[in-house]
């Protein structure tokens, strides 16, 4: 059980505190000499120090409901993890990690860990705020030009809107507040930390809860153009022009930020097309739709870093997991043998079943489930 306190530096009136407390379903029970008190678990709690007893987000909701207007004038900084791209926002804090909103970076304990990759405070660096820019109506996102933007010889065009694409756009904006930028992406362009996909289920988070920012909001923040759900099919470096399924786009400079793609495996069977390649939020939504609603059996192909993370996440969420791995141990190419063996044992203790020295040969429909046939002849009845 975690306890958080949120203390206002500005005097809070009884009426404002009463409205804030009622906004989150509590009852103002007394007020003595202008000091409001709320009752939590039978105890009187001063209004300027609201204790969170039930959930980490409780203090956030109370604070947001009754914070004085002057608090909005306080500036907060952001820091980015060099390993996974997680952004620590002082204004939001990390409630799940014990850091209430408003926690300054300097006040973060040294033993705090990045919620996505587990690295420490020292692995985060300041994320500079975008430089002030002079508004230019002809390039303003408010003109809704993004949907049809054709670029130009003065444009920097970025293909891809994953963490690499958005990071490049942010870095360019730090150097030049005016150069026209256009991101072209086949996906929705949502801003989210991809490492969170392999740990969201055990954290009880749905796909939409992983989104840090909507694509157009981010584009507006950086004052750039954005074309989502636009697949690039050809690049002509001589003419400095890319061809998309929605028309041509000219560029002065071109950045390829396409990210990684899984290999196409030679899998046979009448259900081979049902193998999910979870590499973005859209396919993760599909996966969650198949898994939500009760325990399932999941067959994972590969015991690398992502496969091992998914195995731990799914097993911790009550699903049965079988990992098919052609090697001898999980992460055997990255870890010393003793540590890889320890990882195997830890996952096995969580109920993860390993099938080493095997690959998936066929996937067939079998009644209302799927049947996986491995290269060693083993057959597995599975749901996903």
In angstroms, what separates the terminal alpha carbons? Answer: 35 Å
Overall body shape: globular
Could you describe the largest sheet, including whether it forms a barrel? Answer: 4 strands, parallel
Query: What's the CATH class of the largest domain, please?
Result: Alpha Beta
Spatial extent as radius of gyration: 25 Å
- Report the average pLDDT across residues: 78
The CATH architecture classification of the largest domain is 3-Layer(bba) Sandwich
Number of separate domains: 4
Kindly state the number of beta strands.
Answer: 21
Helix content: 10-25%
Strand arrangement in the largest pleated sheet: 11-10-9-15
Structural features, described:
InterPro entries: FAD-bd_OxRdtase (IPR050260), FAD/NAD-bd_sf (IPR036188), FAD/NAD-binding_dom (IPR023753), Rubredoxin-like_dom (IPR024934), Rubredoxin_dom (IPR024935), Rubredoxin_Fe_BS (IPR018527), TT1751-like_sf (IPR035923). Keywords: Electron transport, FAD, Flavoprotein, Iron, Metal-binding, Transport. Its cofactor is FAD. GO terms for molecular function: iron ion binding; oxidoreductase activity. 20% of the residues lie in helices and 24% in strands. The N terminus is likely disordered. Helix 1 packs across helix 2. It folds into four domains: 57 residues, no CATH class; 56 residues, Rubrerythrin, domain 2 (Single Sheet), CATH 2.20.28; 101 residues, 3-Layer(bba) Sandwich (FAD/NAD(P)-binding domain), CATH 3.50.50.60; 111 residues, FAD/NAD(P)-binding domain. By secondary structure, it is of the alpha/beta class.
């Amino acid at each position: 059980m975690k306890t958080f306190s949120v203390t206002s530096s500005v005097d809070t009136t009884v009426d404002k505190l009463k409205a804030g407390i009622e906004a989150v379903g509590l009852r103002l029970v007394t007020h003595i000499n202008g000091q409001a008190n709320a009752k939590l678990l039978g105890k009187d709690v001063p209004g300027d120090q609201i204790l969170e007893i039930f959930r980490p987000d409780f203090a956030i909701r109370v604070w947001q409901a009754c914070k004085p207007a002057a608090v909005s004038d306080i500036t907060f900084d952001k820091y980015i993890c060099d390993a996974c791209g997680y952004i620590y926002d002082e204004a939001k804090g990390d409630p799940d990690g014990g850091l209430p909103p408003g926690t300054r970076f300097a006040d973060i304990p040294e033993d705090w860990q990045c919620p996505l990759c587990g690295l420490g405070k020292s692995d985060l660096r300041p994320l500079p705020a975008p430089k002030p820019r002079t508004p230019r109506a002809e390039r303003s996102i408010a003109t809704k030009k993004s949907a049809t933007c054709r670029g130009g010889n003065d444009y920097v065009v970025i293909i891809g809107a994953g963490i690499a694409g958005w990071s490049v756009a942010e870095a360019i904006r730090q150097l030049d507040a005016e150069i026209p930028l256009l991101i072209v992406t086949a996906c929705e362009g949502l801003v989210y930390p991809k490492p969170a996909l392999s740990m969201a289920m055990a954290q009880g988070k749905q796909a939409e809860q992983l989104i840090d920012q909507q694509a157009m909001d981010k584009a507006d923040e950086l004052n750039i153009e954005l074309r989502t759900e636009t697949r690039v099919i050809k690049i002509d470096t001589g003419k400095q022009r890319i061809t998309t399924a929605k028309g041509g786009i000219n560029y002065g400079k071109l950045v390829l930020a396409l990210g990684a793609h899984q290999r196409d495996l030679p899998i046979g069977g009448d259900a081979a097309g049902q193998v999910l390649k979870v590499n973005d939020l859209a396919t993760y939504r599909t996966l969650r739709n198949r898994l939500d609603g009760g325990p399932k059996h999941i067959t994972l192909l590969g015991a690398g870093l992502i496969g091992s993370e998914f195995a731990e996440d799914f097993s911790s969420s009550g699903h049965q997991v079988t990992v098919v791995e052609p090697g001898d141990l999980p992460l055997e190419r990255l870890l010393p043998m003793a540590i890889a063996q320890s990882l195997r044992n830890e996952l096995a203790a969580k109920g993860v079943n390993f099938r080493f020295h095997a690959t998936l040969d066929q996937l067939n429909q079998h009644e209302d489930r799927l049947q996986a046939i491995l290269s060693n002849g083993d057959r597995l009845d599975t749901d996903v």
